[in-house]
Amino acid sequence: MSGTARGNLNVLFFGPPGAGKGTQALEVAPRLGLAHVSTGDLFRQNMAEGTPLGLRVKPLYDAGQLIPDDLTIAMLDEHLATLRQTRPDLRGILFDGFPRTVPQVESLDAFLATRGERVDAVVFIDVPQAVLIERILGRGRADDTREAVTVRQQKYEQDTKPLLSLFEARGLLRRVNGDQPVPDVTAAIVEALSPLIGEVA
Asked: Among this protein's residues, is 87 annotated catalytic?
């Protein structure tokens, strides 16, 4: 079964810290009939509800450790099953915050394959580094010190940026200029994904 069968579209949002992935996901998902799935939100929701998976995640999350891929996939599996039941008209999923490493891409590929699906598109929100730093420091969050921002950017460069070439080789990458007003970025993303949406309409 093709990944672009009705309701099976899978889109990844990709970009460095401060690129606006979460902001754009909230704008784009409802316009295109996609469910916005943030792994960070899933972790927090499961911990708050005290689910079995949440109880396994909490000590790792509280200690600032990475959540193992098998736990992340298990949460995704449960959440997507619920979405399919409650939103039968759903065109697909917009993944925000996962995958971030090559092993996570492999885990997601394997998970989607069990559902007869695949990653259909990867939207890369491209923003110059100087603009990113200015944006993040301007948010005023306690954890947005210049040192912390530098560490997050280094981790992105080391672990996540290499995925660009992987997705490009698959012909999935759609680059969008993220250094423009939010509505313009949203319009560019919608335009980039519209041909795929037409296939599942």
From this structure: no
Q: How confident is the model over 92-104, as pLDDT tens digits?
A: 999 998 898 888 9
99 prior amide bond cis, ω within 30? yes
Let me know the angle formed at the C-alpha of 21 by 18 and 22, rounded to the nearest 5 degrees. 100
List pLDDT tens digits, range 131-161: 888 887 777 777 677 777 777 778 787 887 8
At 40, which amino acid appears?
G
Q: d(Cα 151, Cα 111) in Å, to the nearest integer?
A: 30
What is the second-level CATH architecture of the domain 9-33+90-200? 3-Layer(aba) Sandwich (3.40)
Active site residue 135: no
174 is catalytic: no
- Which listed residue (44, 56, 152, 155) is catalytic? 152
Q: Please report the DSSP string for 29-78 in residue order.
A: HHHHTEEEEEHHHHHHHHHHHT-HHHHHHHHHHHTTPPPPHHHHHHHHHH
Domains of the chain, residue spans: 9-33+90-200
The residues that bridge with 177 in the sheet, in sequence order, are 126
Q: Could you say which of 87, 141, 146, 170 is catalytic? A: 141
Question: Which residue of the set 31, 44, 84, 100 is catalytic?
Answer: 100
What is the model's pTM? 0.84
- The question of whether 84 is a catalytic residue gets the answer no
Band (pLDDT 50/70/90 cuts) for residue 199 is low
